Amino acid sequence: MKYGFIKTAAATPHISVADPSANAAEIIKLIGQADICGVELLVFPELCVTGYTCGELFLSDVLIHSAGNALNMVCKATVGKKAIIFVGSPVWNGGKLYSCAIAFQNGKVLGVVPKTALPSYSEFYELRHFVSGRDISGSIKLCGQSAPFGTDIIFAAKNNDTVKIAAEICEDMFIISPPSNRHAQAGASVIANLSASNELIGKSDYRKTLIKSQSGRLSAGYVYASAGTGESVSDIIFSGFRIISENGEILAASGLFESGLTLCEIDTQRLAYERRRLNVFESYDSNGYRMSEFNFDETGAELMRHISPLPFVPDDLKSVSSRAELILQMQSRALAERLKFTRLNAVLGISGGLDSCLALLAVVRSYEILGRSKKDIIAVTMPGPGTSVKTVENVSELAEALGIQIRKIPITDIVGKHLTDIKHSGKKDIAYENAQARERTQILMDIANAEEGLVIGTGDLSENALGWCTYNGDHMSMYAVNSSVPKTLVKYLVSYESERVIKYKKALLSILNTEISPELLPSDNGKISQKTEDIIGPYELHDFFLYYTVRFGQKPDKTLMLALKAFKGKYDREEIKKYLRVFIERFFASQFKRNCVPDGIKIGTISLSSRGDWRMATESSAKEWLDSIK
Description:
Number of strands: 20
Domain CN hydrolase: 6-268
Protein name: Glutamine-dependent NAD(+) synthetase
Binding site for deamido-NAD(+): 434, 463, 468-471, 593
Structural class: alpha/beta
Strand content: 15-25%
Helix content: 25-40%
CATH class of the largest domain: Alpha Beta
Number of domains: 2
GO molecular function: ATP binding; glutaminase activity; NAD+ synthase (glutamine-hydrolyzing) activity; NAD+ synthase activity
Shape: elongated
Radius of gyration: 30 Å
Distance between the termini: 21 Å
C-alpha cells in the first residue's frame, strides 16, 4: 500500500492433527481469502502444517515427508499472490529437526527461521522433539529451492525501506531477551509471531499485555497468530487468538475460539519516524543480518484501520472519563505547586467561553488541593464592544455555580480612548481587535502586581499551533495552564466536569453550547458576530492536522488521505485541502509567538513549548509542505 502502510492478516486455520495435506488445503483456502482482501503480510500459527500436538509423531519419517509435500502445495499456491506469507512447520535440516517459520511469496521460498526458545516445562515438552535454532546462520533446500536458514534474516521490501519483517516463534516472545529485540535493532519494523499458545484462565490478557508491550518497546508492528480448533484436547486447549499491534496500541484482535483472518494495516512510516525521534532506541549495524528481498506493491488501496477524527480524545466514554480526570488532576496539581511556591493567588480573565472556563475549573481544584478559600481567586470579566449577551450570562452562571466572586471591568471606553490617542482610523481592523486583547492582559497583569497575584493564561494548544492569539495580549500570562490541551479536548474536559459535579452542569452546558469566538468585533444586537471557525476553519480539522504533523512528522498528502477517511461524509476533499493549507501556513508563520510562551506543563504527547518539545526556526519555509498537497 501507499505511505508505508502494509495490509496485514493473522490467520488461524482449522487443524487436522498429523494430516499435512488437509492442513495445507485449509492454509491455501485462507491464503485465497487474504489475497481477495489485498493482504500484503499473512502470518499463520506455529506448526500449522502438521498441528502442534503431534507428540512423538514429529519423530516419524512419514510426518516429516508429508509435511514437506504440504509445503510444496502451499508454495505453489502462493504463485500470483502478492503477500509475504509465514507458515509454521517442522523442518529437517542438517540432521536436526526444527520448528520453523517458512516465508513464501509468489512461489518463492524467501527464508526459513527456526525457533529459538523451546519450552519443556509444565505441559510443554518441545525439547523432546526439536532443537533450538539459536545463532544458526546457513541455508536450506526446501520446495526444490535454496533459501537462507537461520535467526539472522530480515525480509526487506525492495521498493520501501520502512517495510522490513522478521519472525519469531511463540515462546521466543516470552523469554527475557526475545529475538525480536535484536531484529528490531537491526531494522525490522514488523515482527511476525507464529504461535501455539494454549488457553488458560488469565493467559489471554497476559499475552495481550506482552504483545502490546513488545510492540511499544520496539516501536514496531507485531502480528501474532496462534493455533486453534482441531488441535488435540487430550490435555490442553487452543483458542486461535490473533492480534495485530503497533507501537503499544492494539489495532485488531480476534475473539477466543475463532478460526479465520484478523486484518488491519500497520503504518511502517510512522514507526520509522518514532525510531528517529527516540534517540534512546538502540539500533545497530544490520551487517550481521541477511536481507531477503520481496516485492511490495505500493497501491492506493483503501484503509481498513480506524482513523479517529478526534485523535486527542479517546474513542470510548469510559476512557474519556478516566483521561479527563487525570488531565484535570495534572493541571490543578501543577498550578497548586506554582501557587504554593510563589505564595500568590490566581488572577485570570473570564470571558464566558470554553478556555477560560477550563482554566477556572483548574484554579478551583488547585485551591481545594491547597486548602485555600475560593474567595481569594481573583477572576475578572472585561466586557468590550464584541461581548455578547450569551457570554455575559455564562460568566454570571459560572460564578454562581463555582461559588466565586467575579469582578467586572468594562474596557470599551478605555480601548476607545487608546485608539484615539494613537490616531487610529476607527476601522474595525486588526489593531482595533488586538487593542482589546492587550488591554485585558494589561488589566490582569496590573491587578496581579497590585494584589500579589499570578496571572493564569487561558489559551490552548490549538491556538498556539495556529497563532490564534494576540502577541503580548492573550498570548501572555504568568502560567499557562491550558497550553498543551487542544481545543477538541477542552470540550470533553468541561463536559466531564459538568457530569462530575452536578451543581456545575447548567452553567457548563451553557458554555459548551456557546460558539467559539474571540468577541473582538461589535456584537450583532447582543449576539456573537465573530465566529472563529468561520474564519480559520473547524478546530476538529486543525487538531487532526496538528496531531499527525507534530506527533508523527507526517507528510501533508498522507495527512490528507487519513483525514478523508476520518471525516468521510462530513468534509469533502477540497474543504480538507483548503484548511490543511491554512493550518500549514499559520503553523509555520506563528513560531515567533511560540518562542516566548509562558510556563505550562505538558499534558499529552504533544507540546509546542520552545523550551521543551518543539524547537523550530521562526524563518522556516512551509514551501515543501504546501507543495506536497498540490
